[in-house]
Amino acid sequence: MATIYIPTFFRQITKGNEYILVEGSNVLESLESLSYLYPEIRDLIFDSNKQVLRHVNIYINNHEIHELEGLDTLVNTGDQIAVIPALAGGAMTLSTEKNANQSALKPEEVMRYSRHIIMPQVGPQGQRKLRDAKVLVVGAGGLGGPVALYLALAGVGTIGITEFDVVDLSNLQRQILHQTRDIDKPKLKSAKETLGLYNPHVEIIEHPMPLTSDNAMDIIPNYDIVVNGADNFATRYLVNDACYLAGKTLVDGAILLFDGQLTVYKPGYCCYRCLYPDPPPPGMVPSCAEAGVLGAITGIIGSMQATEVFKQILNIGEPMVNRLLLVDALTMQFREMKLRRDPSCPLCGDNPTVKELIDYDAFCGSPPIEVPA
Amino acid sequence: MTIKVQVTSVIQKVVNGQSEFEAEGSVISELIENIEIDYPGFLQQIADESGELHRFVNIYVNDEDIRFIDGKDTVLNSGDVVAFLPALAGGL
Ligand SMILES: [Zn+2]
Question: A116 with A127: CB under 8 angstroms?
């Protein structure tokens, strides 16, 4: 008579039981006994040749049975057997399982993310939520860099990046995903390489094109959260409208000179058009290229955007919804303004007139984005 | 009524590089007129030729957007902080 420990994700089969008492003189008989009690578990442990599946480890009193005598290892009364599938992904064949990612964290992941996991606001469940999350980062430049970096370090499982530019020498004063050797390389390639070196477990989805009215609704709905690192008004209105129409939360940030801004737009609250009904005429508000930008402010705002994404995924804390944070790096003053949904907003107001994506270059009076050949 | 005025970097170029200064006014429209007298060119940053406020510039009294109070007629009290914030698009 031994006890078999059932890991959480098999307990649907064992009706929630964590420990099952079984008969058997060796490991094989004990597992057969378990399969007799709960027939569905058999295919999760054994293949068709009655061999233990290669991703499943069987332990007896904390020793893996391959170190002992495999399935023939003798079992004595009071012994504890554990059935532990080692890997995520294809290993999880539970028909009742919604997706493969419910599986436990691997030991390497537990160590890597331990400073997050030990916090009660995160825990193993939170870390799995991060792993299951899909976040789109618009741009792999000043803001997109620190955003993507901190999301990758945190183990956000899928990070999409839209970027079509190539690395220029003048980017290297602030764009942390790119290095001197990356000059003339597509930023997307450079970003993917850098992020892969930091955390090889994260999947980086490349969208090597500018976000446009034609492709935005093919891309954005595939993600849970969108982070704005765009550098022009046309893209900002486009991302705002597409996120609202797709029902996605948009973590917005903007920078210029020594200034930074941060807010979170959530459908049903307020949007970028509530804040700024019309764009400035071209040339009225300069770009970073024209006026300059403090390199470190990209890190300040980008890190805060990553923090808001983290909070959204874990559903913790007070999000920056209906709040606009203004950062002045020269005085190092942080101020916060209230934002409200504007009932007359053409997108999210009571009588919306914008019901699909429009021509944003025409709306902003800006020339279309030029994609380098 | 002396009001503390704050502006972000885009507007700072027309107010001698200051991020904060004082101006007089009992309502927003009067405050703007007085700032324009002290710093000619200020009005052009926040309004069009007809004096209509730009829709990409927001004005806050303390932390409230004046569009949700009384617009240019919003009454100011001593100790109020008025911020002029144009939209920023930078991200690169
Ligand atoms: Zn709106």
Answer: yes
Structural domain contains residue A122 = no
Same domain, A160 and A14: no
CA A267–ligand 1 middle distance (angstroms): 9
Burial (CB count <10 Å: 0-12, 13-18, 19+), residue B33: middle
Number of independent structural domains in chain A: 2
Q: What is the DSSP string of A151-192?
A: HHHTT-SEEEEE---B--GGGTTT-TT--GGGTTSBHHHHHH
Among A171, A259, A277, the residue with its CB nearest the CB of B88 is A259
Q: What is the homologous superfamily of the domain B2-86 according to CATH?
A: Beta-grasp domain (3.10.20.30)
Predicted ipTM of the assembly:
0.81
Residues 6 or more apart whose Cβ sits within 8 Å of residue A296: A174, A329
Q: What is the pLDDT of residue A329?
A: 94
Confidence grade of residue A178 (pLDDT, cut at 50, 70, 90)? very high
Strands (DSSP E) along chain A, which ranges?
Answer: 2-5, 19-22, 56-60, 63-64, 80-85, 134-138, 158-162, 203-207, 225-228, 249-256, 259-265, 323-328, 333-338
Predicted local confidence at residue A98, as pLDDT: 40
According to the 3-state scheme, what is the secondary structure of A58-108?
Answer: EEECCEEHHHCCHHHCECCCCCEEEEEECCCHHHCCCCCCCCHHHCCCCHH
Binding-site residues on chain B for chain A (CB distance < 8 A): 6, 8-10, 19-20, 54-56, 58, 60, 63-65, 67-68, 83, 85-92
The larger pLDDT score, comparing residue A264 to residue A63, is at: A264
Q: Evaluate if residue A94 carries a pLDDT over 60.
A: no
Residues A150 and A249 in one domain: yes
Among A229, A254, A258, the residue with its CB nearest the CB of B9 is A258
Contact between residue A240 and residue A250 where contact means Cβ atoms under 8 Å apart: yes
Say if CB B61 and CB B28 are below 8 A apart.
yes
Per-residue pLDDT reduced to its tens digit, A69-92 = 889 999 988 888 888 766 443 333
What share of chain A has pLDDT > 70, as a percent? 93
Tell me which of A323, A325, A337, A342 to substitute to probe the interface with B (most B C-beta atoms closer than 10 Å). A337
Q: How far is B70 from chain A (nearest CA, A)?
A: 14
Claim to verify: residue A81 and residue A144 sit in the same structural domain: no
Largest CA distance in chain A: 83
What's the predicted TM-score (pTM) here? 0.75
